[in-house]
Design goal:
Structural class: alpha/beta
Distance between the termini: 70 Å
Radius of gyration: 26 Å
Bound molecules: adenosine-5'-triphosphate
CATH superfamily of the largest domain: GAF domain
Strand content: 15-25%
CATH architecture of the largest domain: 2-Layer Sandwich
CATH class of the largest domain: Alpha Beta
Strand order of the largest sheet: 2-1-5-4-3
Shape: globular
Largest sheet: 5 strands, antiparallel
Number of domains: 4
Number of strands: 19
Oligomer: single chain
Number of helices: 22
Length: 626
């Protein structure tokens, strides 16, 4: 293996020169040629095991594609490989004869095929470019890999991050015309499955040009939280003529008549007037297991009975800031001891992300995470949604009745988001259910026992609400056995470093862009009223609206980040800053955003990086502001 040297002096053949992607990859490899070597350096078996566990859900969702592809390509002396986002191969399948040959060049689980280690190759170069790549024979940078012909396609997360690569490889002497197309289709299908299993409480708009394509691999999917787009696939971007910056915008901005959609295919129009066909689907993909199986009431386990495993898709969560780690430890102890945890913090400060981490790390991690947005449920539906109902309990009820969200949370975690927005009357019923750990569905005299970890979140000051009578004191005390304050983003330690890191992660690195010192200074000095949500939306816009390769200066930033509008470092809000100052900053920022959007609340909310309903709520609550 050591005798196999990289071609650092020779240029690839003429035919290869025509392929820009390969050429650019060769240039990168030649620039860092000294660091490349043929020695594969496999990771330790224990590290591979950890990666397999971390990626268990994607691997699980990819199995049917891998099995189908493997049986297709085995007879053509080819193999199928699945690698993670760092290029480490996690799984192989296909022709046993070629697998043996592939091992000679370390094309096997536990070896990283990142371009920075193995030179131009399909897995590594597809990862670098976040695009499908075919690398044939001599197009490989390292001499030893020239025996291979490889075709790799990235698998995208619902937020547009590459979460893995699917590869079909064979000997270079055999050119397989269909391999690239197959790899692309299967990678897309795996991405669709991930999207359909991401968060079962969310709705999906599925659309295409013709109804016959709504269940095909080409189906376009948007994942919605209320009307905000929180996930998508490439087919959706393509049909809507957008890039990933469409995330966190309102679906109203893209599809005119999506509100009329239901489970049957209906006509749908893009904002450019193109006609499509679409349906609205609940979180569960047809024919696939629920991410969090429901236990029928009569099957509720006896105390101490082992919990069932869930096939739930737990996508990687953003890591918590270091300053939140000890809070997390205490919260885990509290929730495991049966205490209710209350998360308080500004909008977008990461309350739900904290709650999801807490679920994953608690004794309830094998059960479902059931999130209820108490502020978004129509008042008339909230009771049936929470407690369920018997068949025929009221006009319009589903014939088979409904279990209700509290029972769905059985054996997992119930997350009551925006608890401060729950109507006073319902607070009494909720308190009773929480105290007695029993649910009585509407129209039924049965009481059904439920057991779950309880986490609530709010961006109101609940204590003040208790004082002014808009929140029940007894419910407040029931919800906050343990209180966690999520600090706003502007108080994050090392905010500048975090900004750089996120800018690179969100595409700056791929597009060779940097933030100059002046831009960083203004971004770090800004008050970030929409916190992480706003930060990601602003950084994504910078990455995609500025030219690739640019160095972004303060003057390239939106107006609210330029000197006059951003808070000077000396005035930065600190944890001791009085609430009135904080209010004034929020009011000013919001006032300006609304003025700049010419009173268009949707646009103003988008520029602030918050959801429209959050902005409306703020304006209702603070009528003195604009
Ligand atoms: N620690 C973090 N690091 C990076 N991103 C984060 C972090 N916390 C939250 N985010 C991102 O910020 C966005 C908002 O997070 P989240 O929904 O948890 O906030 P929230 O406080 O619950 O907001 P709201 O009160 O408006 O519901 C999400 O896109 C999430 O991925």
């Amino acid at each position: 293996m050591n005798s196999l040297k990289p071609l650092t002096s020779a240029k690839p053949q003429d035919a290869v020169l025509a392929k820009n992607r390969i050429l650019r990859s060769w240039e990168r490899c030649q620039a860092s040629g000294a660091a490349l070597h043929a020695d594969p350096n496999p990771i330790l078996a224990a590290d591979l095991q950890t990666r397999l566990e971390q990626h268990a859900n994607v691997l699980h969702l990819a199995q049917s594609e891998i099995a189908t592809l493997a049986s297709l390509v085995a007879s053509a002396q080819s193999v199928v490989l699945l690698a993670d986002a760092s290029g480490v191969i996690l799984q192989e399948a296909g022709s046993t004869e070629f697998l043996r040959k592939a091992e000679k060049v370390a094309l096997q689980p536990g070896v990283s095929w990142a371009e920075s280690l193995r030179g131009t190759n399909a897995i590594g170069t597809a990862l670098f470019d976040a695009a499908p790549v075919q690398v044939h024979g001599s197009e490989h940078f390292l001499e030893c890999n020239k025996i291979l012909s490889c075709h790799a396609a990235p698998i995208f997360s619902p937020r547009g991050e590459v979460i893995g690569v699917l590869d079909i490889s064979s000997e270079a002497s055999m050119l397989h015309a269909y391999a690239m197309g197959l790899a692309k289709i299967c990678a897309r299908q795996i991405g669709n499955r991930v999207l359909e299993h991401t968060d079962t409480r969310l709705h999906r708009v599925v659309f295409q040009r013709h109804a016959s394509m709504l269940d095909s691999v080409e189906r376009a999917i948007l994942l919605l939280e209320e009307d905000r787009i929180v996930g998508a696939n490439e087919a959706a971007l393509c049909l809507l003529g957008s890039d990933w910056s469409l995330l966190d915008t309102s679906v109203h901005d893209w599809l005119d008549d999506w509100r009329q959609l239901d489970e049957s295919p209906r006509a749908l129009h893009t904002r450019n007037g193109a006609q499509l066909t679409g349906t609205l689907r609940s979180g569960r993909a047809p024919g696939l297991p629920r991410s969090a199986p429901i236990i029928p009431a009569q099957d509720a386990p006896a105390p101490g009975q082992k919990k069932r495993a869930t096939a739930g898709m737990k996508l990687a969560l953003p890591p918590l800031a270091d300053e939140m780690k000890s809070n997390m430890q205490h919260a885990i102890t509290a929730v495991n001891a049966g205490m209710a945890v209350l998360l308080q913090g500004e909008t977008g400060a990461g309350k739900e992300i904290f709650a999801r981490h807490l679920h994953n790390l608690s004794q309830w991690h094998q059960g479902p995470f059931v999130a209820i947005n108490c502020g978004a449920l129509p008042e008339s539906l909230i009771e049936s949604e929470l407690f369920g109902y018997e068949a025929g309990a009221f006009t319009g009820a589903r014939r088979e009745g409904s279990r209700g969200r509290l029972r769905e949370a059985h054996d997992g975690v119930l997350f009551l988001d925006e608890i401060g927005d729950m109507p006073l009357l319902l607070q009494t019923r909720l308190l009773r259910a929480l105290q007695e750990r029993e649910v009585q569905p509407l129209g039924s005299d049965k009481r059904i026992p439920v057991e779950f970890g309880l986490i609530s979140a709010t961006n109101h000051d609940l204590m003040t609400m208790v004082e002014n009578g808009s929140f029940r004191a007894d419910l407040y005390y029931r919800l906050q056995d343990f209180d966690v304050h999520l600090p706003p983003l502007r108080e994050r330690h090392n905010l500048r470093n975090y900004l750089c890191q996120e800018f690179q992660r969100l595409g700056g690195a791929d597009r060779s862009m940097i933030l100059t010192d002046s831009a960083l200074q203004n971004l770090a000095a800004y008050s970030w009223p929409g916190n992480y949500r706003q930060l990601h939306s602003v950084l994504r816009r910078l990455v995609h609206l500025q030219a690739a390769g640019s160095a972004i200066k303060a003057t390239d930033l939106p107006p609210e980040f330029q000197g006059r509008d951003c808070i000077a470092p000396a005035q930065r809000v600190t944890p001791t800053c009085p609430a009135s100052t904080l209010r004034a900053i929020s009011d000013q920022t919001i006032e300006r955003a609304i003025a700049e959007s010419r009173n268009n609340i949707t646009h103003a909310a988008r520029s602030l990086g918050v959801h429209r309903s959050t902005l409306y709520r703020y304006l209702r609550r603070h009528p003195a502001s604009p």
